[in-house]
């Protein structure tokens, strides 16, 4: 009995595997596909090596599918050719491409944070296209320092004695803590044991720098006396970290930077302020800028290049010469070296700050932040009319709706900016907001929106006029 049962199972298995192997044998060969007219035409724009890889990939996918689901019918050549064309076109498109930010989040880390000023883009292109004076002294012809291009500008704009620029602010913090406090204690308030994002946590950074963290105070209140008790001859650094991506409100107390500086000065301990946002202009009352930190006398200040400063990704280290020098000489500084494209864009951005009005106009981050309600309304109405023209009325609902934009990028989390959005949804039983938003993201130039209560919101705060036309064109094709 058992033997028989075993045989019938085996038999069934054999029948299935015969069917599958028949289907597998019916799949076209690579050379047959390469010879098909559609793929030969595709070959005019797609290199042969890519075509062969794509064909092998598509055939392998079918082999696996047929083995996993024996009841599935074998594809015909036309199906496979179509898949090869789609896959090849997908592979030929650049992965990192322009996106349209209709989210209203000015500094959207996922969308590349700060949009550069035209002046910064020009400078970057010039340096990218040719050789440049990156590390050369023109008078002597000898090797110079790449830091020279931004050091004096940073000092001029902030009042700092010295400056050093690295790849990003996380790197700047790591480098500064390592250079100033390795093997010693770093005093930090419990209200500032923050995670900046992407797993960048202050306590981990201190530990990775080879320093020992000494926590003082509580989550909501830390007093000067807490710092006084914690500092000793083992202290290498008093660290202040701006809680830039959250706010503690209510029963709170923090120590003014000036008081920490006075304590540090009296004990010969440097005080570092991780300012984060890199704001050079005062945009919000009561929110401190890099200049305020310099004025307060911080030994070292670290700040990001691509947050409120509105420049390229970079980490700015500013402060007193006697502390910046050991930072610049530390071996880690070389590992975090800033590149020439960044320096070009950063120098051009900083130059705009010599004139406040010019900076507010030319730097998109600042321009979007300051955008007036009449201007936003004008853009919203233009987008509304553009969408109204291309969307069939019976399938979609469209309206203008007041809402709030965000600064994002871990800057000024309590600030909400009034805005007017264009709100879109499918008519009852039509497309859901999630589906509309997904189609927009997958457009040739991807469009990113906010989805809220099953409406897709386009926030014009972060859009340029020409992008409004692009959105209307894309929506016509997609929906
Ligand atoms: C954003 C931020 C950082 C990290 O800056 P990146 O330039 O993104 O590396 C560090 N510290 C603070 C306080 C920040 O807000």
Automatic annotation (TrEMBL):
GO biological process: conversion of seryl-tRNAsec to selenocys-tRNAsec; selenocysteine incorporation
Source domain of life: Bacteria
Cofactor(s) the record lists: pyridoxal 5'-phosphate
Cell compartments where the protein resides: Cytoplasm
Keywords recorded for this protein, A-Z: Cytoplasm, Protein biosynthesis, Pyridoxal phosphate, Selenium, Transferase
InterPro entries (UniProt xref): PyrdxlP-dep_Trfase (IPR015424), PyrdxlP-dep_Trfase_major (IPR015421), SelA-like (IPR018319), SelA_trans (IPR004534), SelA_trans_N_dom (IPR025862)
Residues recorded with modification N6-(pyridoxal phosphate)lysine: 307
HAMAP family: SelA
Chain's role: Converts seryl-tRNA(Sec) to selenocysteinyl-tRNA(Sec) required for selenoprotein biosynthesis.
UniProt name for this protein: L-seryl-tRNA(Sec) selenium transferase
């Amino acid at each position: 009995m058992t033997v028989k049962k075993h045989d019938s199972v085996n038999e069934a298995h054999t029948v299935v595997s015969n069917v599958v192997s028949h289907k597998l044998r019916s799949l076209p060969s690579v050379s047959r596909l390469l010879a098909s007219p559609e793929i030969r035409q595709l070959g005019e724009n797609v290199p042969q090596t890519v075509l062969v890889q794509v064909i092998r990939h598509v055939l392998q996918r079918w082999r696996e599918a047929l083995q996993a689901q024996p009841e599935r019918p074998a594809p015909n050549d036309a199906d496979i050719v179509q898949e090869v064309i789609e896959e090849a076109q997908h592979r030929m498109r650049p992965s990192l491409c322009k996106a349209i930010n209709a989210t209203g989040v000015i500094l959207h880390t996922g969308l590349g944070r700060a949009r550069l000023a035209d002046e910064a883009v020009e400078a970057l292109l010039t340096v990218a296209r040719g050789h440049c004076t990156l590390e050369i002294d023109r008078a002597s012809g000898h090797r110079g320092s790449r830091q020279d291009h931004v050091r004096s500008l940073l000092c001029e704009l902030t009042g700092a004695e010295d400056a050093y620029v690295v790849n990003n602010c996380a790197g700047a913090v790591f480098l500064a803590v390592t250079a100033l406090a390795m093997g010693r204690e770093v005093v930090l308030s419990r209200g500032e044991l923050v995670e900046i994002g992407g797993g960048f946590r202050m306590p981990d950074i201190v530990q990775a720098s080879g320093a020992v963290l000494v926590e003082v105070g509580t989550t909501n209140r830390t007093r000067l006396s807490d710092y006084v008790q914690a500092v000793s001859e083992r202290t290498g650094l008093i660290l202040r970290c701006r809680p830039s991506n959250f706010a503690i409100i209510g029963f709170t107390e923090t120590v003014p930077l000036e008081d920490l500086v006075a304590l540090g000065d009296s004990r010969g301990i440097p005080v570092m302020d991780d300012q984060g946002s890199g704001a050079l202009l005062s945009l919000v009352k009561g929110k401190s800028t890099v200049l305020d930190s310099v004025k307060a006398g911080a030994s070292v200040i670290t700040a990001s290049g691509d947050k409120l400063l509105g420049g390229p990704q970079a980490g700015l280290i500013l402060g007193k010469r006697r502390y910046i020098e050991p930072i610049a000489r530390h071996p880690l500084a070389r590992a975090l070296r800033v590149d020439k494209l960044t320096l070009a864009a950063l120098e051009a951005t900083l130059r705009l700050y010599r004139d406040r009005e010019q900076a507010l106009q030319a730097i998109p981050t600042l321009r979007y932040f300051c955008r007036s309600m009449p201007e936003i309304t004008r853009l919203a109405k233009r987008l509304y009319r553009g969408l109204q023209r291309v969307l069939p009325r019976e399938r979609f609902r469209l309206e203008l709706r007041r809402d709030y934009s965000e600064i994002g990028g871990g800057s000024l989390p309590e600030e909400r900016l009034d805005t007017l959005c264009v709100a879109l949804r499918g008519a009852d039983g039509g497309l859901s907001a999630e589906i509309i938003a997904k189609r927009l993201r997958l457009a040739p130039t991807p469009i990113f929106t906010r989805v809220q209560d099953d409406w897709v919101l386009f926030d014009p705060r972060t859009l340029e006029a020409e992008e409004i036309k692009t959105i209307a064109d894309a929506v016509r094709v997609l929906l």
